[in-house]
Specification:
With 321 residues, the chain is an alpha/beta fold. It is built from 9 helices and 12 strands. β1 (5-11) and β2 form a beta hairpin.
């Protein structure tokens, strides 16, 4: 029997995914349910319990030593609660306590989804081998996490590295968070599309008004689409450079749907980074795409649980990876 397993949960507004993950980051069993995001909190929790139920019924479950949770935020790891923006039934919801009860009292580690993605990219992905890294998810929102001194740095509440709400435009648009000119307000997928539409870009016959459609137009040379991605890249570069200046990261890894735009995003991002990361100790900073894809949340939640359990466990790469 495997004795080095952890259970992992990846909780978002669309799906609740669960897995049993071994000490090399291999997913041995999966379970998933749609998130009943419009329902009350207990209904959402029932979906979580159904996912956990599939895991606990497995013969492998006996080897599970802990549970890691990566959740859409805000999260509060110190209180064990979650308040995901896109799950209104959960506000200050005692998720850690409920998961502990559903798993027979196993230790539970909670982090935000950006921190989970960071743990995954450091363990198995694009930040592997880097002791100081910023990893970002750029999609409907913009989140992130930090690796400092070779270890995940979630911060007291599990939200450290939340780069989406660094202000990079002092007189910029109001952000739903309450501040102005946040990275997310400029660089998230919906805001890239919004800016392109405001600039006069129009979708094709399919009516697709997403950032992915703007990226297609930008690749074809549409100047408004190109400008929207260039502004997003500039906002990301400013946030990344500010982070590097504060804590001396040497790589920034970008995942999420917007990163799939490829060179349309990364070329202007690298150019802008030269303009913002100007001090001698941040000039070597590199930026690249994430590698972990849709499994990042599960693998990262597992990594967070393993790290916590061992204090500073050596998270070894999977054999052959």
């Amino acid at each position: 029997m495997h004795t080095d397993l952890v259970a992992a949960l990846d909780i978002g507004g669309t799906k609740i995914a669960g897995a049993l993950v071994d000490g090399r980051g291999r997913i041995l069993l999966r379970a998933q349910r749609p998130t009943p995001a419009r329902e009350d909190g207990d209904t959402v929790m029932r979906a979580v319990e159904e996912v956990l139920g599939e895991l606990t019924r497995s013969p492998l479950w006996g080897g599970a030593r802990a549970v890691g949770i990566g959740s859409a935020g805000p999260v509060d790891a110190s209180a064990g609660t979650v308040s995901p923006v896109n799950v209104p039934g959960w506000r200050g919801y005692p998720l850690v306590e409920r998961v502990r009860a559903a798993t027979g009292g196993l230790p539970v580690e909670l982090v935000g989804d950006g921190v989970a993605m960071t743990a995954a990219e450091h363990w198995q992905g694009a930040a592997r081998g880097h002791d100081n890294a910023l990893c970002m998810v750029v999609s409907t929102g913009v989140g992130g996490g930090l690796i400092l001194g070779g270890k995940l740095h979630p911060g007291p509440t599990g939200n450290a590295g939340h780069i989406g709400h660094i202000s990079v435009d002092l007189d910029g648009d109001p952000c739903p968070c309450g501040a102005r000119g946040c990275v997310e307000r400029i660089a998230s997928g919906p805001n890239i599309a919004r800016r392109a539409i405001e600039g006069g870009w129009r979708p094709g016959a399919d009516g697709d008004m997403s950032a992915a459609a703007v990226a297609v137009a930008a690749r074809a040379g549409d100047p408004v689409a190109v400008a929207s991605f260039e502004r997003a890249a500039k906002a990301l570069a400013a946030g990344i450079a500010a982070t590097a200046t504060l804590v001396e990261i040497d790589i920034a890894v970008i995942g999420g749907g917007v990163a799939k735009a490829g060179s349309v995003l990364f070329d202007p991002l690298r150019r802008s980074l030269r303009d913002y990361a100007t001090l001698s100790f941040v000039r070597h900073l590199t930026v690249g795409p994430a590698l972990m894809g849709t499994d990042a949340g599960l693998v990262g939640a597992a990594a967070a649980a393993l790290s916590q359990e061992a204090g500073a466990v050596d998270l070894r790469p999977a054999v052959g990876s």
